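Encode chain A's predicted structure.
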Amino acid sequence: MARGDAIVVCPEPLAAEAGGRVLRAGGNAVDAVIAAAYAQGLVNPLMCGIGGTGHILVHESETGESVMANFGSRAGSLAHERVYPDIEPTVFANRFRARGWANYVGYQSITIPSFVRGTWDTHQRFGRLAWDALLEPAVEAAEDGVTIDEFTFSFWDPQRVRHGDSPDPRVTLTATEECARIYLKDDGSVYGIGERLYQPDYGRTLRRIAAEGADVFYEGDIGRAIADDFEANGALVTREDLRTYRTPFERPVSGTFHGMEVLTERSPSMGSLEIEALHILQELDLVGAGWRSPSYYDLLARVFQVIYRDRARWNADPNFVDVPIASFHSRERAKQLAVEIDQGARLAAGAGASGSGDTTHVSAVDRWGNAASFTHSNGNSAGVVTPGLGFLHNHHMHNFDPRPGYNDSIAAGKSPLYGCSPLMLMRAGAPEIVSGSKSRYRVTAELQVLVDLFTFGASLHDALEHPRIHAEYAPGKLYLEPTFPQQTRSELERLGWESIVVNMAVPMCTILKHRDGSWEAVADPRGGGGLVTC
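Encoded structure for chain A:
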């Protein structure tokens, strides 16, 4: 736990220090999250990096403006709904893979790499420090090497238990010779905890971007190398897709919770559905149910299944599908759903797409009152490294439903569903909560933290450390963290839930403003402990 006038928090300590370094040099919250994010790409290269995508929610105190920079996944111009043959289900009823994991691994799994353009455009609009200063910590990490810690190792650990909706990491790490050359040792094994990983090609690419800006990545030498590589290997992203990509800046969607305005990202993210859940939760008598009792968790789980049902039925890219966002945000509908839930209704969908894999996040606030919440991702990466450039490309095509004829089916230029969205809670026009995290379990984890904080008055430390539950599409299935109390689990099973123990690994990156104006953050124990105050 830490308090300060300026804070940066993320799962990776080296990345948090990169963000703190620019805060101490006079940078603002936007500078801090960008610097941290570039460093995250070096310490967690499968999860994130300059071949990925992202979303930054910015609040600028001087103007009172809140803006979402939405540079999330977008399918390339060669994508179409029948691009993958021989589709089969994974162990999750709502997840599908193409033959040979083609929508998860390799060139056809890559969406437009928007991270560099998105961070550049956001910095040009909101940043304070010089651009090259933000990338310098990442360049140093690439050239000096990074020590593999337990958090990073968990993503390529060959013994890690997986749940069947993504390939074994060895499939990814050996997808291309260049990937294997960088991320596997000479004997073919992965780098272990305490060993040092050097990424000099990545460092050289970053130095070019630091010196020349985003254009070199999309239209210059780096962009030409990427385009040539993609064309030669059947990628769905074209040279023109790279050349013309620009960052959309949007108004965040909003709702209310305990008198605060909730700001987050529009569809196809789960932002509107998180607002729907908060509206329902405020209509339910959670206090009467008994905090963290079986009845309380039963109510939470049924609310979670409502929002996943609505996601499966209606959520999609609103540029391609008519999405009923007003219905998601409706307080009247929330009251109606709360009555149904209170009467014992179970409203699961049983099907639908769901983002899986891995992502990362960084949140920051500064001494001027600015705030930034930045979620960015490679997923688990495509295992593709363009020769000589040193970084992994994303594999976000797997977030589409690869079957034709569904709301979330593939189309050129379309964005797939994703679950991870930046979030802020505003009181009197200023941030009180700046938050976000990673993975398919992010929304339900964040909802539990917010209920703990504002319905029950828990400390931030308690809210982040307590074991969590998760429920989504499958009727009657409830996912529990390994440390969840056994007695409560047994009582939930008597209420009709089939409980499944899962290591959800959702480190919340949450910063809370206190009445005295100070900021507090806690390093969620599910992450690597990245937290810096200034």
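The longest helix spans residues 294-314.
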